[in-house]
Specification:
Largest sheet: 4 strands, parallel
Number of strands: 8
InterPro entries: Kinase-pyrophosphorylase, PPDK_reg
Order of helices and strands: EHEHEHEHHEHEEHHEH
Enzyme class: transferase
Helix content: 40-55%
Radius of gyration: 23 Å
Protein name: Putative pyruvate, phosphate dikinase regulatory protein
Low-confidence stretches: none
GO molecular function: transferase activity
Mean pLDDT: 91
Keywords: Kinase, Nucleotide-binding, Pyruvate, Serine/threonine-protein kinase, Transferase
Structural class: alpha/beta
């Protein structure tokens, strides 16, 4: 028998399920739901496989969010949901119907078109390789090759933001800002509008650093996680951003996706 968690959400897709999971993750932020498991069932292409997915969802008393482009599978999903008394949320169907009704066009009904290996796919792969290779200022020569340059103090989420932007196809390099280190000279040669400063409320950064030290088993009274040091680093970073005349984004209480959206709109 499958071990039941407090909350179980299934993602059922005839492709990789990324779209449905993104919607579920965004919605989850509006709720306090500890011990929630999201499980992807990918490349579901026939009714027998779909039935097995739904049996597990029923057993674990969860619900399913699905992206199925083939009409017969969507219909099978609805029938299984009724049979097993499961809540099933169609993520893509209503949007496809809106396109068809408004623009008088029929969908291709081919799974996986979002992830086909076209130019955009290879651009994302290249950007991800770039972000990994040059993460955390490993090679400052990458600054002049990047689409986006992120500046910020330690533990301000530069790396996850870089990876998210790379997934969108932007070659991103992130540079740590430390008062004792001279900023890379290449920053002054970057095309205007490509450098972005990240800042955060000192209280939140102090909490993040203290938690990091706790996870690593280190004492929380080191200089790195003192209010004096945190305020000094943020003030230094702000002065550098002003000198570079770059946009500054306060990431306090912002999701990675939200910060990335702001950056992309400003490019």
């Amino acid at each position: 028998m499958v071990q039941a968690s407090s909350h179980f959400i299934a993602i059922c897709s005839d492709s990789v399920g990324e779209t449905a999971e993104a919607v579920v993750q965004a919605t989850m932020r509006q709720f306090e739901l500890p011990d929630t498991e999201i499980k992807r069932f990918m490349n579901v292409r026939d009714e027998d496989e779909l039935s097995r997915v739904m049996e597990e969802v029923a057993e674990r008393k969860g619900f399913v969010a699905y992206t199925l482009v083939q009409p017969e599978l969507r219909e099978a999903m609805k029938e299984e949901a009724v049979r097993l008394n499961i809540r099933a949320v169609d993520i893509m169907g209503p949007m496809m119907q809106a396109f068809a009704d408004t623009f008088h066009n029929d969908p291709k009904e081919k799974p996986g078109l979002l992830h086909r290996m076209d130019d955009n796919y290879f651009r994302r792969v290249e950007a991800l390789d770039f972000a990994v290779q040059y993460d955390d200022g490993k090679d400052v020569s990458a600054i002049l090759k990047a689409d986006i340059v992120l500046l910020g103090v330690s533990r301000i989420s530069k790396t996850p933001l870089s990876m998210f932007l790379a997934h969108k196809g932007y070659k991103t390099v992130n540079i740590p800002i430390v008062p004792e280190l001279t900023p890379p000279a290449q920053l002054k040669d970057v095309q205007p509008g490509r450098v972005f400063g990240l800042t955060i409320q000192p209280e939140l950064l102090l909490k993040i650093r203290s938690e990091r030290l706790k996870v690593m088993g280190l004492p929380n009274n080191v200089q790195y996680a003192t209010s004096t040091r945190v305020e000094e680093e943020i003030a230094y970073a702000q002065s550098l951003f002003k000198e570079l005349n770059c946009p500054v984004i306060d990431v306090t209480d912002k999701a990675i996706e939200e910060t990335a959206g702001l950056i992309i709109r400003m490019l």
